[in-house]
């Protein structure tokens, strides 16, 4: 089966996405990761744009890349300037990459209205720029900007522009759906026409403004394009680029093309998260193939079927792209969700117990709980319903005080009184805010009896108002994420009072940690 060249432009077009700004170090780290997985071409940046991109092209020369070729991106020469005097082309030459990618105009509207040159000058700009870089010993990829819009409005001129690039020595012409407005049938017709018009092989570069960038990419490949340009997670200008993660997974797993190194598809989830992390962006949980919900089963009927045959509700096996299956517990659960979630605890799938757990989940979710995001609280709930839960301490009372005046910032203090192993612990602690003070006081009271709580840390705190339009007072749902040196877990509390909701989530977090350290939540042997 034929091999598709994968051209990553995360570091150039991806950086054009709102809110994306990679540091030089990020760019070098992403380059190393892409090389490791077998990406063929990595567009490192816009050579003329800024100091960071220029430095990237210097530093990347010292990297020991095993497979990837680096390309520097720039545009055709400015109008009425000789190629050898054009600052953009000089920057491309000085980037010293083996490959240069030059973008040029294809749509007559852009030629007359944006560049404000005639068609002959635009063709000369393309020809001169490609020929100059080829003469400088560079391999040139020509990006035909707005090819699909150009082809729709003036096919004859659009084809002349790519002929100019091909004849001047471009080793590949990449057809760009720059505005992302084309649908798959438009892609197919225009790729066919390009294929018949030039010698150079074709690539495809789609934007996602119509939410079909990946579909368009696949369609172009089916029509004979041999290179896919895109970005990891689809980041990029406006609605982004074709997501290479989905494009590669579809091409390799569904259409039997070859891409990247053998086995790299299994690392797509890891790659996606790595790039989100460096881009300082949140993961998209519903992202196809690699999102944390991509294989999360929630509806009771689905879970029932998945327990019998996973492929009944999954288009691929999650592990094939390095992802995991998840079974969620919620008010939409049936007995099958509970059975799936509790198998690890060896409850012998006791039918009455499963029913009781499900009833309790439904009751609490009706009251505002949401166990999908709070699996540690769900684990404790099982123990409570199974009557194997024994509280590690009892609350006698707590109080939280916030004091401020015109001269002072707020000071927060919490007092907690607990019964722990028969002793009364009465402590006071300060904090940055009420929840922090409460957390500090709770742990201060418990650490003498349970020193392991020294390693417990609160890492995230989320609060959400629920039923705010109901006739009753609004409730709040607090979800806390905690960690120790081994694990991260989430707990939940719901109340009309935000401090009480936080207390409930904190108590679950502490109880979970103590039970976990006793080996309670280990999978049954
Ligand atoms: C479809 C794409 O994603 S293409 C990549 C887009 N990415 C970027 O623009 C990011 C990096 N860009 C930059 O750093 C700057 O825009 C630079 C350095 C390239 C140019 O900066 P400036 O010289 O200040 O020009 P500015 O950005 O205001 O305008 C673009 C200029 O390029 C010209 N231009 C645009 N496309 C082309 C082209 N394909 N060939 C030649 N000239 C072009 C425009 O006509 C305009 O020149 P003019 O002012 O003489 O009419
Ligand atoms: C080249 C490019 O990024 C585009 O036309 O969208």
TrEMBL record:
Pfam families: HCS_D2 (PF22617), HMGL-like (PF00682), LeuA_dimer (PF08502). Its EC number is 2.3.3.21. It comes from the Bacteria. GO terms for molecular function: (R)-citramalate synthase activity; 2-isopropylmalate synthase activity. Pathway: Amino-acid biosynthesis; L-isoleucine biosynthesis; 2-oxobutanoate from pyruvate: step 1/3. It catalyses: pyruvate + acetyl-CoA + H2O = (3R)-citramalate + CoA + H(+). One of its GO terms (biological process) is isoleucine biosynthetic process. Keywords: Acyltransferase, Amino-acid biosynthesis, Branched-chain amino acid biosynthesis, Isoleucine biosynthesis, Transferase. It is an enzyme of class 2 (transferase). Residues 4-275 form the Pyruvate carboxyltransferase domain. Belongs to the alpha-IPM synthase/homocitrate synthase family. PANTHER family: (R)-CITRAMALATE SYNTHASE, ALPHA-IPM SYNTHASE/HOMOCITRATE SYNTHASE. This is Citramalate synthase. It comes from Rubinisphaera italica. The lineage of its organism: Bacteria, Pseudomonadati, Planctomycetota, Planctomycetia, Planctomycetales.
């Amino acid at each position: 089966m034929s091999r598709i060249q994968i051209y990553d432009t995360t570091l150039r077009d991806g950086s054009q996405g709102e809110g994306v700004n990679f540091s030089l170090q990020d760019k070098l780290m992403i380059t190393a990761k892409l090389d490791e997985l077998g990406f063929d071409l990595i567009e490192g940046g816009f050579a003329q744009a800024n100091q960071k991109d220029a430095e990237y092209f210097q530093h990347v020369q010292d990297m020991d890349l095993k497979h990837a070729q680096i390309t520097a991106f720039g545009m055709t020469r400015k109008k009425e300037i000789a190629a050898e005097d054009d600052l953009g082309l000089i920057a491309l030459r000085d980037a010293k990459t083996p490959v240069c990618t030059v973008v040029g105009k294809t749509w007559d509207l852009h030629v007359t209205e944006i560049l404000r040159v005639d068609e002959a000058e635009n063709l000369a700009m393309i020809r001169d720029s490609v020929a100059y870089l080829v003469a400088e010993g560079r391999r040139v990829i020509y990006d035909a900007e707005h090819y699909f819009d150009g082809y729709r409005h003036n096919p004859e001129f659009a084809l002349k522009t790519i002929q100019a690039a091909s004849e001047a020595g471009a080793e590949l012409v990449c057809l760009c759906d720059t505005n992302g407005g084309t649908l798959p049938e438009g892609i197919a017709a225009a790729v066919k026409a390009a294929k018949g018009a030039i010698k150079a092989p074709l690539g495809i570069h789609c934007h996602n403004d119509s939410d079909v960038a990946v579909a368009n990419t696949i369609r172009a490949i089916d029509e004979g394009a041999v290179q896919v340009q895109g970005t990891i997670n689809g980041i990029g200008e406006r609605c982004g680029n074709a997501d290479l993660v989905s494009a590669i997974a579809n091409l390799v797993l569904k259409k039997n093309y070859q891409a990247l190194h053998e086995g790299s598809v299994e690392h797509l989830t890891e790659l996606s998260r790595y790039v989100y992390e460096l881009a300082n962006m949140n993961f998209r949980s519903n992202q196809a193939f690699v999102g944390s919900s991509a294989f999360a089963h929630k509806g009771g009927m689905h879970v029932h079927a998945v327990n019998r045959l996973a492929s009944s509700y999954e288009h691929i096996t999650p592990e094939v792209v390095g992802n995991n299956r998840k079974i969620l517990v919620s008010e939409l659960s049936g007995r099958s969700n509970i059975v799936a979630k509790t198998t690890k605890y060896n409850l012998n799938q006791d039918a009455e117990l499963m029913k009781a757990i499900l009833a309790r989940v439904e009751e609490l979710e009706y009251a505002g709980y949401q166990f999908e995001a709070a699996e540690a609280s769900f684990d404790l709930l099982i123990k409570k319903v199974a009557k194997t839960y024994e509280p590690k301490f009892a609350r006698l009372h707590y109080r939280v005080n916030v004091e401020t005046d015109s001269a002072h910032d707020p000071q927060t203090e919490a007092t907690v009184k607990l019964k722990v192993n028969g002793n009364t612990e009465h402590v006071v602690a300060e904090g940055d805010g009420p929840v922090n003070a409460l957390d500090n006081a709770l742990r201060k009271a418990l650490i003498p009896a349970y020193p392991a709580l020294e390693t417990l840390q609160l890492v995230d705190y989320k609060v959400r108002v629920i039923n705010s339009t109901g006739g009753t007072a609004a409730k709040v749902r607090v979800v806390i994420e905690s960690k120790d040196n081994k694990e991260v877990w989430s707990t939940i509390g719901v109340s009309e009072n935000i401090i009480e909701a936080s207390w409930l989530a904190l108590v679950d977090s502490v109880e979970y940690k103590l039970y976990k350290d006793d080996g309670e939540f280990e999978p049954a042997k």
